[in-house]
Fold each of these.
Amino acid sequence: MTFSGFELLKNALNGGAGWTPHWRKAQPKAAYDVIVIGGGGHGLATAHYLAKEFGIRDVAVIEKGWIGSGNAGRNTTIIRSNYLLAGNIPFYELGMKLWEGLEQDLNYNAMVSQRGVLNLCHSDAQRDAFARRGNAMRLNGVDAELLDREGVRKMAPYLDFDNARFPVQGGLLQRRGGTARHDAVVWGYARAADRRGVDIVENCEVTGLRQENGKIIGVETTRGFIGARRVGVSVAGNSSRVASLAGLRLPIESYALQAFVSESLKPVIDCVVTFGAGHFYISQSDKGSLVFGGDLEPYPSYAQRGSLAIFADVAENAMALMPMLGRLRILRSWGGLMDMSMDGSPIIDRTPVDGLFFNGGWCYGGFKATPAAGFCFAHLIAKGEPHPAAAAYRLDRFERGCVIDEKGAGPSPNLH
Ligand SMILES: Cc1cc2nc3c(=O)[nH]c(=O)nc-3n(C[C@H](O)[C@H](O)[C@H](O)COP(=O)(O)OP(=O)(O)OC[C@H]3O[C@@H](n4cnc5c(N)ncnc54)[C@H](O)[C@@H]3O)c2cc1C
């Protein structure tokens, strides 16, 4: 079934009786050409592009829970391509272009909303750094605007401009940035991949990676062995655990990150705002809830939950920036698992095991990367060579000293 105005009207008149499930409940076959481990946004996007762009349809996505149960369904939905470094800009801009055509490509309403991402600066030095980043973006054909204090005031009059410690001095705006509905991105990719014949196997955990003579030959799962010529690992916060099944030790640590959502308000914040003097970012969902987050938990963990200390920190940041939030009621908070790499940038590469490919190390930035990561990972699996836009994301860059450290935080994963 294709979504169209006609289908909407028809189903509105017949009580929705014509809607069909978006994807089949596939049972695993004995073997596939390609298995993608992880039914998050990245794994499903990889399967979609494998089938659509590279004609590889004998593909299964193996997910231990239900699709979107990981970070794909837990993030704060921000998309942007406002990066500084040469290794990152082409990749994230490819992603932004794919976001711009995503709904037509998938025939699915992913609620992509280019409402603008505004990074606030609070000191002269920070403004200079923003000017430098904005120039790098523009030199690479990415939109960027440096706003002065009055320019920011026009966009976001509710900020505490004269906060004694962190007065707002200006901001870097990417108008093409914004948000997308995270669940819908998962469902849209799943539906599109399924329509091209991809099997989406849920409730099936990969427990082993079987090799023969240094080559991958399939995966052990809670539903038995499934053979495969090629296997792509795309499991976000579980990267180190799954890679260890093949005897690999990755330059990655996992940390929990929380997100918070408030009661619904009338429209008040019409773009994404990030606080430059602390770690805090906020936007308003189409339902009216304010959606916001801050720092990682301070210690590595595989627990998908966070501590009260981080909640207190996020609340302090919120109050410094928008005192009106002091009267806000929080509805829910939750945690997801971040695979933090040593330089804060991702890895999309072959592994030392023949036929085993890896996509991970996404840190805070993996949702916005979903289309580009899926596209580039599919390219890598199909052709055996990295896509030019992801050429810098090699596994050996740490031993070569070619790190892509956007924040300049050094080899401390939790600081990126
Ligand atoms: C609170 C929070 C806020 C965030 N906000 C943003 C944001 O605003 N913008 C942004 O760009 N990024 C954000 N991120 C990061 C982003 O969500 C992730 O980087 C991205 O979703 C990771 O890719 P994914 O969607 O494929 O991961 P996931 O959805 O986590 O997919 C990985 C899947 O692998 C499965 N899996 C794991 N182990 C196995 C196994 N052994 N066998 C089978 N399946 C397995 C998991 O169940 C999971 O479904 C945020 C993350 C969190 C936690």
Amino acid sequence: MLAAKSLLPIQSLVPLSIFLFLASLTWTTSNSRSSNNTPPGPVSIPIFGNWLQVGNDLNHRFLTSMANKYGSVFLLRLGARNLVVVSDPKLASEVLHTQGVEFGSRPRNVVFDIFTGNGQDMVFTVYGEHWRKMRRIMTLPFFTNKVVQQYRETWEEEMDAVVEDLRGNKRAQEEGMVIRRRLQLMLYNIMYRMMFDARFESESDPLFLQATRFNSERSRLAQSFEYNYGDFIPILRPFLRGYLNKCRDLQSRRLAFFNNNYVEKRRKVMATNGDRNKLRCAVDHILEAEKNGEISSENVIYIVENINVAAIETTLWSMEWAIAELVNHPTVQAKLRGEIADVLGEEPVTESNLHKLPYLQAVVKETLRLHSPIPLLVPHMNLEEAKLGGYTIPKGSKVVVNAWWLANNPEWWDKPEEFRPERFLKEEMDVDAVVGGKVDFRFMPFGVGRRSCPGIILALPILGLIVGKLVRNFELVPPPGVDKIDVSEKGGQFSLHIATHSVIAFRPIAA
Ligand code: HEM
């Protein structure tokens, strides 16, 4: 059993000892699970459930080890919350596809309630009318091929600017640099141009500094395990007051930042231009929906908040992983450069020629397979009691699909721990990562079904483009004196990124 101290702040220890005493009086046995036919799992105690045994960090690797013990669907009781973990492609297809409606809702927690205004957004809202409306309204301005065609040149422009900066940066070429910050600026520009027709001048642009600070603090507070105790055990919630106030304070300043600097500006532009105005960027479409009475002004701001989180961080993490793996696998890198040279000759890497580069696409897929940024997908929830794999899933359970394990289980993949893009051109050549492609429930870094990632249509070309452009222009190597880039992971409630932002040296290749 884990030390309670590591799970709780010190001030909670007195009430905790009282609970522990109460709990020790009445251990429930695993028989109680079989009597109500819920999935197997460790024996739980009242009030705490399994929390003291399993701890806070319920990451994809830990949940895999539990699946090996309890099976492909198991249940953990975390205080007042039930967590159901699915680790098998057939059951995953039940949750995401066959019973997609039943399991199509989202659980929230005390912190996500604050960051989503109790589900006024799209990503974390319950399955129902509001979600359907939000997803429909967001699709046209963000998630269609027309959007890709409209913006691909601006993406390429932002990426070519990164290449130019690196070509002019002797230090990055010789000693190396942390590339993350420059890629972050590039991605903010890609997304903010699409969203608001706005961009940041440089990494020291005051608005860029504010936006990145607000968003990273939001992610830190939301993805931390620090607040689990108050979320799982309602009676401990008063101890969480300080944390929740910090979240509320951040959220109100952050939303005001988006509103005052971006949304209001677009409102003014639209009001001034009147009918002559053509809808220039995504938020103009969203404001039009607000004007038509379809959504509220709060919904508008939560759409902006969702894109800031869902679009930028996931894509940035994937870029960092891809680059790190290419540095650690120089043969893969050389082969990729060879493909680009053979297929494109002097032509630049552009969105319109990505389809001619199968090895580049395999590199992107292999990165997402080995390092899924959302390894457990965004948690799902059943609004009503449901059946899964012959078990009863209690109403309101948090249901996670261990997508990382489905993509890394040696029973289903040849040497899954190896970074080997070739697998997607050989034994796994039928496994797609394309919009509307054939679904393989072993490989779904973007999820599948109703709540799957609509951003896949943007993320895949953006990833392919930046990786292709960097490899074409530079030899990516570790900094002097370093052999391998550290690719250890750091996870949160459901996020996964590289633990140490890599220093990479970019040796220019003669144009
Ligand atoms: C490499 C990049 C990305 C990865 C790996 C990724 C992954 C995911 C995953 C796993 C989900 C949850 C699926 C589920 O619960 O079944 C999701 C949801 C979502 N993603 Fe992405 N995503 C990426 C990029 C993007 C981008 C670029 C955008 C927007 C421009 C975006 C917008 C969303 C939204 C709005 C949802 C919520 C969908 C819903 O609840 O209906 N994502 N993403």
Amino acid sequence: MKNPTKSFSWSSKSSSRSAGEDREAKRSKRSTEVVGMAQSSANTVAASGSSSNADLVSLFECPVCFDHVLPPIQQCQSGHLVCASCRPKLSCCPTCRGPLGNIRNLAMERVAMTVMFPCKYASMGCELTLSHTDKVEHEDSCDFRPYVCPCPGAVCKWGGPLENVMAHLMSAHKSITTLQGEDIVFLATDINLPGAVDWVMMQSCFGHHFMLILEKQEKYEGHPQFFAVVQIIGSRKQAENFAYS
Ligand SMILES: [Zn+2]
Ligand SMILES: [Zn+2]
Ligand SMILES: [Zn+2]
Ligand SMILES: [Zn+2]
């Protein structure tokens, strides 16, 4: 027989990993609580001051990437700001073409402490505003951040919103078989051929789509090893409803 098959199955609680993500669900919960607290202090600032939070936020816009300039903040010799990720790529100030120098702007850093910045996925629907210290951590687990293609091997460079992941898989990865139902039989052909390979299929069950991946790793102590991965095509929250058993 040239096509031996490998089969395994699992029950209702099947996955704890979600598309394009690692396991950081707990962290995101914590940052949401912090967001709630910080939000109320910003409202106080906005209500008591004459300039609105939005006016202040606009002062921190990087002229190159339109993301925000966050502490530590450096300015050019004429006082223009540029963000820390754009700055190393520039040979002069993008606003005045003058030398960038090495001048810290502590006053703007102090102002940044009082400003609530929008999440960088605001244009994709995230409505949170956060202190600059919480912003980076939140963006890491924001539900609106683009998902990467869940196919193994990182060959596909697609990224987009969660709701488009299935459409992408169906148009760009047509060869992946989708099966329905809660009993899963995974068919992997040619498992004895040499080399590290992945087998991928989709399973629709429990109202969700799951990507099943069988990974072969060549020759661990002389024998090939197989790893099975189940990923829900969904958010971290949805993934929390499932577990390996
Ligand atoms: Zn920038
Ligand atoms: Zn300048
Ligand atoms: Zn967000
Ligand atoms: Zn893809």
Amino acid sequence: MNVEKLSVSLPKELVQELNKFMEENAIGDRSKIFQIALRNFLDENEKDDTVVYGIINVVYDEHEASRMFLELQHEYLDRIISTMHLHLNERDCMEAIAVRGTRSELVNLNSKLSQIRGVKKSRLLISYEVR
Ligand code: NI
């Protein structure tokens, strides 16, 4: 593998947390963890025309977010394949939204979802690239 060495600055607490995790899980290769984290970050944020399948995982406050949340899903109806809804407690809900579209479209949808008031978390997992 062709590698390049980088020097990065991180908050001390984050490094301590990482070191503790590596120790507890007997992981010796810090570079591997950064590679995985960066790959996930780029998958979630890179924009291109590759058609992909993925899952958007959203946790939201039903009272605050429901209307906007549904409107946005209707706007993207031809990108959404299926949705699973779970009631977490009296107010909070989780949805796993299976999606298909270009990486750009799905990154934009995830970004819009995460900006809705009452949405606590929205993550896009790219599962498969159509080639
Ligand atoms: Ni619910």
